[in-house]
Write a structure and sequence with these properties.
single chain, about 130 residues, mainly beta, seven-stranded mixed beta sheet, four-stranded antiparallel beta sheet, about 50% strand, globular
């Protein structure tokens, strides 16, 4: 059973940085693409970033482009979402997700495309 555990959420001020981590267990890490989503109160879950199973391809949402990066470390079975220059509208619960996708070339942006989800970590950005 694949399990994802996120960490790294916090209360920060505008302009600060945070790095979220997501550890995958119970599966072969290198077979899974990883996605990051966020959900603010009263809003739908939205795509933030994704990285391919091999780490060679990444995709960042327009709202996060030039501020967020996504990466993965196979030695640690961990994916990362590095966030810079945070703004109050980045406030949300952030979720990591995994999709069994070994060999796939296209990254997915819909929550329904991912089979496994973490529990979420709260990021709050104060103005």
């Amino acid at each position: 059973q694949v399990k994802l555990v996120e960490s790294g959420g916090a209360l920060v001020q505008t302009g600060n940085s945070l790095r979220l981590s997501c550890v995958l267990s119970g599966g072969t890490f290198s077979s899974y693409a990883m996605g990051w989503f966020r959900q603010a109160p009263g809003k739908e879950r939205e795509f933030v970033a994704a990285i391919s199973w091999g780490g060679g391809t990444t995709l960042i949402a327009d709202s996060a482009k030039d501020r967020f990066t996504v990466s993965r470390d196979s030695a640690k079975n961990t994916g990362y979402l590095q966030m810079y220059n945070l703004r109050p509208d980045d406030t949300a619960v952030y979720y990591c997700a995994a999709r069994l996708s070994f060999g796939e070339l296209r990254l997915r942006m819909l929550p329904s495309d991912y089979e496994y989800w973490g529990q979420g970590t709260q990021v709050t950005v104060s103005s």
